[in-house]
């Protein structure tokens, strides 16, 4: 039941082996042998459908058998074209589609539908992130054609075509069907610009005409560009009030519904003075304005540096946030190089695994398989029992503390009723903040110094739990002065945290399109315990921060050693496929184990990327809050820098900047203690470079 923290996770399109790529039924075989269908006298003759073989790969086993597959080959409906896993349906009369145009209908994955079923009006399922590009105008090759030096919506549209995004990720050209929300609809046919090396595809290609004329290709490219024009919006730059205007736009993206019957995603593009919006931190802005190289003659005559912000949002039915961010990396100049690096790493791991298996006897292989089966079943039982335990431990019905911020929300609602205010003055609004926290190398060194298996995720879960404790203490102090309500004596020594886990390791595998492939796990970690005085410099104060981290690590490790993420993924699919929407929504809202916050880790490129020659200086994602969970935190890494974003209910975290500051204070304590541990231990100064 920890799938609640996924917040509308969905499964990715499945890629199968060449042998099972195309499953011919009698009706499908009839289509391949008869590529044109007989039209009635009052219908215009249809042109032959043109689509890429990539679609066959991406849609295998995702589309239900169409009606024609259930009928005799002589009874194929004249208005339907039958292709394995594809259904082409004639546009309705009177619509804006041209005569003879078809709609590609793809069955939505069950997890994709789950995201639609489980979202609420105040908690829409819309991941949001921005890319911030800089242009210091010192290099003419990196300067865009427009006078401002930034990127425009028109250039974005051209870039989309140039990078072949419509073929790599066809889901971006889909929308939810108005007739049946189990399906995506794609209103045009992408150009055939790629090839697939499989025998089945080659056989299919020989039996269907896929070669297009130049005029038709140009027409279809214009159709793609026109559709992207509906998604890419050029707007004014959020530079009037530093960070606040951008913060408001992000809040609107997270909370305002997206008409998924019209489009599943959108991007706002703006360009303005460098550093004016707050998307790029002061430190990076100073580095761009004042590079280390010597001041050259004539630099004073250079134009003012600019920045461009690409603010994206997409419904979770389209893809999970990790897949979305990874897919948009295909827009970068280094996209091909990154895909090759991923492919090389995969081949390297396969070779290593193959060599290891060669050394095993048949008996050892069977024993290894048996151990995996035993681990899965015993681990599943353990994960389910642990989930039940932490849910009951926080259940108010049996004396548990409940979700720590629930009392805060009730107090705000009661206070607003007494004062005659509208509940919407706080309820339903978001508190947002983001910043660069540290270098990735430094965080890894801290984790290594404190414990062998401690991860970056453990470090910032610990920092977040400390900030949660301080926020609860502040709420208690505030309401104690106003009322004798439950907050005056209610403490939460332990809180639950939900941690989403990307089942593909946080990146898109080569050849795969965007999708939803996320599970989740919930752990019980320290909350309001071991509160220490900020002015205390004794060892006991420092040890508290380290002890909190070690306790957090042990708690997460217990559930990490089970198949909990996979179980949550499967349970979400079950709810979507077999339970009514009202039941699914109820389970989703009540099955989060009363988690106080969600923290996810998003890994980006280890090196700086570029779009049209302009460096991407910052990439920050914001978590869409699941119903019942008031705080979402994203820890991202990009170009060797770790960044943090906080998305919270306004009533739970009134000041996200202060909350983020508390996280950084806890991180500072951990860093100081890590240095002391190394100096007192082996004498190895692993922090020499960072000091």
Overview of this structure, please?
By secondary structure, the chain is of the alpha+beta class. It is 39% helix and 16% strand. It is built from 19 helices and 17 strands. The protein has helices spanning 26-33, 53-59, 110-118, 153-162, 165-168, 199-207, 214-231, 244-255, 282-289, 321-328, 335-358, 362-393, 406-419, 440-450, 456-480, 539-560, 564-578, 581-590, 656-680; strands spanning 80-83, 86-90, 102-107, 128-135, 175-176, 183-186, 232-234, 265-273, 306-314, 430-439, 494-502, 518-526, 597-603, 610-611, 614-622, 631-638, 641-649. Strands 7-8-9-4-15-14 form a six-stranded mixed β-sheet. The longest helix has 32 residues, at 362-393. The radius of gyration is 27 Å and the shape is globular.
Walk me through the topology.
Blueprint: H1 26-33, H2 53-59, E1 80-83, E2 86-90, E3 102-107, H3 110-118, E4 128-135, H4 153-162, H5 165-168, E5 175-176, E6 183-186, H6 199-207, H7 214-231, E7 232-234, H8 244-255, E8 265-273, H9 282-289, E9 306-314, H10 321-328, H11 335-358, H12 362-393, H13 406-419, E10 430-439, H14 440-450, H15 456-480, E11 494-502, E12 518-526, H16 539-560, H17 564-578, H18 581-590, E13 597-603, E14 610-611, E15 614-622, E16 631-638, E17 641-649, H19 656-680
Parallel strand pairs: 7-8, 11-13, 13-16
Antiparallel strand pairs: 1-2, 2-3, 3-6, 4-9, 4-15, 5-6, 8-9, 10-17, 11-12, 14-15, 16-17
């Amino acid at each position: 039941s920890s799938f609640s923290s996924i917040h509308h996770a969905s499964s990715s399109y499945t890629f199968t082996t060449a042998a099972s790529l195309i499953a011919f039924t009698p009706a499908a075989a009839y289509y391949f042998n008869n590529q044109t269908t007989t039209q009635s006298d009052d219908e215009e003759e249809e042109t032959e459908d043109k689509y890429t073989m990539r679609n066959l790969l991406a849609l295998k086993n995702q589309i239900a058998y169409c009606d024609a597959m259930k009928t005799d080959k002589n009874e194929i409906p004249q208005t339907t074209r039958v292709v394995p896993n594809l259904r082409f349906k004639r546009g309705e009369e009177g619509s804006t589609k041209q005569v003879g145009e078809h709609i590609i209908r793809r069955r939505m994955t069950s997890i994709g539908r789950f995201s639609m079923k489980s979202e609420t009006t105040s908690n829409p399922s819309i991941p949001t992130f921005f890319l911030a590009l800089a242009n210091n105008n010192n290099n003419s090759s990196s300067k865009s054609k427009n006078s401002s030096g930034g990127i425009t919506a028109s250039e974005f549209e051209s870039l989309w075509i140039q990078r072949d995004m419509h073929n790599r990720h066809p889901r971006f050209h889909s929308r939810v069907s108005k007739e049946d929300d189990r399906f995506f609809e794609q209103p045009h046919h992408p150009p055939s610009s790629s090839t697939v090396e499989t025998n089945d595809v080659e056989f299919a290609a020989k039996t269907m005409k896929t070669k297009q004329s130049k005029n038709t290709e140009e027409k279809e490219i214009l159709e793609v560009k026109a559709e992207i024009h509906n998604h890419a919006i050029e707007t004014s730059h959020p530079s009037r009030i530093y960070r606040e205007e951008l913060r408001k736009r992000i809040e609107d993206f997270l909370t305002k519904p997206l008409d998924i019957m019209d489009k599943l995603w959108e991007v706002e593009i703006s360009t303005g003075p460098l550093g004016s919006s707050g998307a790029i931190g002061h430190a990076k802005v100073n580095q761009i304005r004042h590079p280390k190289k010597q001041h050259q003659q004539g630099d004073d005559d250079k134009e003012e540096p600019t920045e461009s912000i690409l603010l994206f949002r997409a419904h979770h039915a389209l893809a999970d946030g990790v897949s979305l961010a990874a897919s948009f990396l295909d827009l970068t100049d280094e996209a091909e190089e990154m895909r090759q690096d991923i492919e090389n790493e995969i081949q390297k791991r396969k070779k290593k695994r193959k060599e290891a298996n060669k050394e095993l006897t048949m008996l050892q292989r069977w024993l290894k398989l048996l151990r995996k089966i035993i681990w899965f079943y015993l681990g599943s039982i353990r994960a389910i029992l642990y989930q039940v335990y932490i849910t009951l431990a926080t259940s108010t019905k049996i004396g548990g503390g409940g979700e720590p911020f629930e009392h805060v929300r009730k107090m705000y609602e009661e206070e607003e009723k007494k004062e005659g205010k509208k509940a919407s003055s706080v309820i339903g609004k978001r508190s947002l903040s983001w910043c660069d926290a540290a270098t990735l190398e430094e965080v890894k060194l801290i984790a290594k110094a404190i414990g062998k298996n401690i991860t970056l995720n453990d470090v910032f879960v610990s920092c977040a739990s400390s900030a949660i404790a301080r926020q609860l203490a502040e709420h208690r102090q505030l309401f104690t002065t106003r009322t004798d309500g439950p907050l005056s004596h209610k403490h939460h020594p332990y809180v639950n945290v939900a941690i989403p886990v990307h089942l593909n390791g946080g990146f898109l595998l080569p050849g795969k399109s965007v999708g939803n492939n996320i599970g989740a796990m919930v752990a019980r970690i320290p909350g309001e315990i071991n509160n220490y005085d900020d002015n205390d410099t004794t060892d006991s104060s420092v040890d508290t921060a380290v002890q909190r981290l070690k306790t957090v690590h042990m708690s997460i490790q217990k559930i990490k050693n089970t198949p909990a993420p996979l179980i949550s993924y499967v349970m979400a699919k079950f709810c979507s496929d077999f339970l009514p929407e009202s039941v699914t929504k109820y389970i989703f809202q009540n099955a989060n184990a009363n988690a106080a916050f969600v923290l996810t880790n998003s890994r980006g490129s280890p090196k700086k990327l570029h779009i049209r020659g302009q460096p991407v200086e910052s990439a920050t994602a914001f978590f869409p809050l699941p119903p019942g969970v008031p705080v979402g935190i994203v820890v991202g890494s990009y170009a060797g820098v770790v960044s943090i974003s906080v998305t919270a209910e306004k009533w739970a975290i009134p000041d996200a900047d202060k909350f983020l500051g508390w996280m950084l204070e806890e991180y500072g304590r951990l860093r100081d203690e890590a240095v002391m541990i190394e100096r007192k231990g082996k004498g190895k100064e692993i922090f020499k470079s960072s000091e």
